[in-house]
Amino acid sequence: MGVYKLDEIAAIIVEGGNIVCIDCATDEEMNALTAEGIIEKSVLENDDTIYFCDRCKKRILA
Ligand SMILES: [Zn+2]
């Protein structure tokens, strides 16, 4: 899907493949974001994979 609501984005994948939660993402990173770099909250709810932020190390929750 090409359209995302900001409040449906749980985390983003930044350069280098790091996963960054929305709280840790910089404005610059949000501006450079592509559809492939988005981890939606619905993915966290349906997937049995657990994601952690590479910056604050907190678990990323939906
Ligand atoms: Zn974080």
Description of the molecule:
With 62 residues, the protein is of the alpha+beta class. It has one domain (1-62). A hairpin with a 5-residue loop joins strand 1 and strand 2 (19-21). It starts with 8 loop residues before the first strand and ends in a 16-residue tail after the last helix. It contains 2 helices and 3 strands; from the N terminus they run E-E-H-E-H. Helices cover 18% and strands 18% of the residues. Strands 2-1-3 form a 3-stranded antiparallel sheet. The longest helix has 6 residues, at 41-46. Zinc ion (ZN) is lined by residues 21, 23-24, 53, 55-56, 58.
How do the helices and strands line up, and which of them pair or pack?
Elements: E1 9-13, E2 19-21, H1 27-31, E3 38-40, H2 41-46
Antiparallel strand pairs: 1-2, 1-3
The chain binds zinc ion.
Low-pLDDT stretches: none
Order of helices and strands: EEHEH
**Strand coverage percent:** 15-25%
Number of strands: 3
Instruction: Count up the domains.
Output: 1
Average pLDDT confidence is 92
What is the first-to-last residue Cα distance?
Answer: 19 Å
- Total helical elements: 2
Structural class by SSE content: alpha+beta
Largest sheet: 3 strands, antiparallel
Rg from Cα? 11 Å
